[in-house]
Automatic annotation (TrEMBL):
Renumbered residue ranges of the record's region Disordered: 441-467
Domain spans labelled Glucose-6-phosphate dehydrogenase C-terminal: 178-451
Function: Catalyzes the oxidation of glucose 6-phosphate to 6-phosphogluconolactone.
Keyword NADP included in the entry's annotation: yes
NCBIfam families: PRK12853.1-3
Residues that coordinate or bind substrate: 164, 202, 221, 326
Pfam families hit by this protein: G6PD_C, G6PD_N
Keywords: Carbohydrate metabolism, Glucose metabolism, NADP, Oxidoreductase
Domain Glucose-6-phosphate dehydrogenase NAD-binding: 6-173
Residues that coordinate or bind NADP(+): 43, 84-85, 134
Active-site residues annotated for this sequence: 226 (proton acceptor)
Name recorded for this polypeptide: Glucose-6-phosphate 1-dehydrogenase
UniProt EC number: 1.1.1.49
């Protein structure tokens, strides 16, 4: 196990909100070695006492459920270093030490190329790993260039293009449920499944993240990475094992099979929106463009929806709808598998069958299956829903993700070709949106988002399977 972690951007939001709490959870679970040390490197200098106070406050706020001795151990293991990612001298000092190091770039993605070049100049000890957050590049060309720079620095197995959704147990359950139950796999194809919705709708708003979010928007923040990864797990062929190679080979097959949308299809198969002022529960929310740090000229979307199809035997004819939005009325975070109606119902006037829907709740951890049954009168058809709670995770997603990084297991990170293929799918949409082929709709914060949904508006869709 690697015993040293250096976080560039180490006193930023990601570090305080997720990485240090993830380490505290690992410590509490007995998964960190005693000699483990973390360096938080950042441009703005801090003295030791001020830094320790900041770490303590972050852990109180974001890891309150972790026992105090584990939080104290992380406070004791953390050191601050002033470093500028473009300045090799300060970077060398931050990564200096015995043995391999895991370097986490908790930086704006625009700085990744500079960071990788500086690290290459400085050199990392053998066995070191590098971690990059999404979005990986800003289009196919820049992702290819970044992959080239990384290949000079460390071997591909040492590059962790992390996606914290893959480290969520509810996401791992997509494969777990699919592949360990006799009843699902035989019907896991377009003959039986009309549509799969992959949805991450949040009540969360910008939450002070304009510096990052206003550059990317919902399509690049959520769809290009998290939601496409969920699609891969749902649509992939069963892998031989869950080793990094088998798993990532099968995921990249899916990405390569997705048909990029054409300019003619994009207005019918995609939607974008941006929230205006409104109320979510008791909370008054300003218009997105009035949030601190937002530049309205960016025309950043806070809601994105795209409908994709796969060109292969298993899935030709099934629609995959990916949707994510912020400042919506309710949290809805799930994968919903909509089955086709039965071919024939011998019940005459006694009602109709509700289409079966299998829902994988991503947060909170639930699974439900909507079926149809006979009612109390013994002849009419009534809806019946089976619901269950899946097991809560033992580690938070970032805890699991950091454990894999320190253990050198990249199975739950994206391989270079995966990151490139994901841009191949999304680039045409970015281009069409930048040319205004699709209007930027507005929706009040606290509403269901701009309507109607792609899946409902689809002129080619089968009305029988609509919700
Ligand atoms: C992040 C996105 O990757 O995922 C956020 O940048 C989003 O915009 C978040 O809110 C959702 O995941 P979680 O685990 O923080 O609920």
């Amino acid at each position: 196990m690697i015993a040293r972690l250096v976080i560039f951007g180490g006193t930023g939001d990601l570090s305080g909100r997720y990485l240090l709490p993830g380490l505290a959870a690992l410590r509490a679970a007995g998964r960190l070695d005693d000699g483990f040390g973390v360096v938080c490197a950042d441009r703005k200098d801090r003295d030791a006492a001020d830094f320790a106070g900041w770490v303590e406050a972050q852990l109180d706020r974001h890891a309150g459920e972790v026992p105090a001795d584990a939080r104290n151990a992380i406070i004791a293991a953390a050191r601050f270093r002033r470093a500028d990612i473009g300045d090799p001298g300060t970077v060398a000092a931050a990564v200096a030490g015995d043995g391999p190091v895991a370097v986490y770039l908790a930086l704006p993605p625009a700085l990744f190329p500079t960071a990788v070049q500086t690290l290459d100049q400085v050199g990392l000890p053998p066995g070191s790993t590098i971690v990059l957050e999404k979005p990986f590049g800003e289009d196919l060309t820049s992702a290819m260039e970044l992959n080239r720079l990384l290949a000079d620095l460390v071997p591909e197995e040492a590059v962790f293009r992390v996606d914290h959704f893959l480290a969520m147990t509810t996401v791992q359950n997509l494969l777990g449920s699919r592949l360990s139950n006799r009843v699902l796999e035989p019907i896991w194809n377009s003959a039986h499944i009309a549509r799969i919705e992959i949805v991450w709708e949040e009540t969360l708003t910008l939450e002070g993240r304009a510096g990052y979010y206003d550059q990317v928007g919902a399509l690049e923040d959520m769809v290009q990475n998290h939601l496409l990864q969920l699609l891969c797990l749902i649509a992939m062929e069963p892998p031989i094992t869950l080793s990094e190679r088998d798993l990532r080979d099968r995921k990249v097959d899916v990405l390569r099979t997705l048909r990029p949308l054409t300019d003619a299809e994009i207005p019918r198969r995609t939607r974008r929106g941006r929230y205006t002022a409104g109320t979510i529960g008791a909370r008054r929310v300003p218009s997105y463009i009035d949030e601190d740090g937002v530049d309205p000229r960016h025309r950043t979307e806070t809601f994105a929806e795209i409908e994709l199809t796969l060109d292969n035997w298993r899935w030709s004819g099934t629609r995959f709808v990916l949707r994510s939005g912020k400042a919506l009325a309710a949290d809805r975070k799930e994968v919903a598998v909509h089955f086709r109606p039965v071919p024939y119902l011998p019940f005459g006037r006694y009602g109709s069958a509700q289409p079966n829907v299998l829902r994988f709740g991503l947060d909170p951890e639930t699974m439900t299956l909507a079926l149809t049954a006979i009612g109390g009168d013994g002849e009419s058809l009534v809806p019946l829903t089976l619901s269950a709670q899946t097991q809560p995770p033992e580690l938070p997603a970032y805890g699991r993700l950091l454990l894999d990084v320190l253990n050198g297991n990249p199975a739950l990170s994206l391989r270079g070709d995966e990151a490139e293929e994901a841009w191949r799918v999304v680039d045409p949409v970015i281009s069409a949106w930048s040319r205004d082929l699709v209007p930027l709709d507005e929706y009040p914060a606290g509403s269901a988002g701009p309507g109607p949904r792609v899946s409902e508006a689809d002129p080619d869709g089968d009305p029988a399977e609509r919700p």
